Amino acid sequence: MLLAAALLAGGCANRPPHGTESALAARPEAQSVLRSVTTDRALEDRILALDPDRISEDDVRDTLAKAPAPRIVLVHGGIFPVYLIMASTGRFLSAMGYPESKIRHPDDGRWSTR
Q1: Is 38 helix (H, G, I), strand (E, B) or coil?
Q2: Which of 24, 28, 57, 86 has the most beta carbons within 10 angstroms of its beta carbon?
Q3: Apex CA 102: angle with CA 99 and CA 104, to 5°?
Q4: 75 strand-pairing partners
Q5: CA nearest to 98, candidates 66, 75, 74, 65
Q6: Alpha-carbon dihedral of residues 107, 83, 65, 56, nearest 10 degrees?
Q7: Domain residues of the chain, as ranges?
């Protein structure tokens, strides 16, 4: 039984595709992701001036909705009813002002990914 488990665990290991070793070894430059996001200086100043304890609907609509937003990936793991919870979570975040295009799957518009 122990031998079968060891063989099974060894079969689960995989190697990166040929030629990607050098790409994996290269380290990104410090702060490169932050520099890749460009925002208007006036918008950045308005965001930084917001009081997190007192965000109004106008602040969300007029300021935060115009800021660049990272993609949110809703993963349901393939279990049947969980995708319903992920869809509900996506609709909730969207209703709170998060851009729906940054929540839905970019290929087919699903709320969640398996």
Answers
A1: coil
A2: 86
A3: 105
A4: 113
A5: 65
A6: 170
A7: 31-68, 70-114
- Tens of pLDDT along the chain (114 residues) come to 777 776 666 555 555 555 555 555 667 777 776 677 777 889 889 989 999 899 898 888 888 888 887 888 888 776 777 777 888 888 998 888 888 888 888 888 888 776
Residues 58, 41: Cα–Cα separation, whole Å: 20
Could you identify the residue written with the tokens 């997190």? 52
Residue with tokens 């996001």: 37
> Which residues lie closer than 8 Å to 106 by C-beta, 6 or more apart?
71
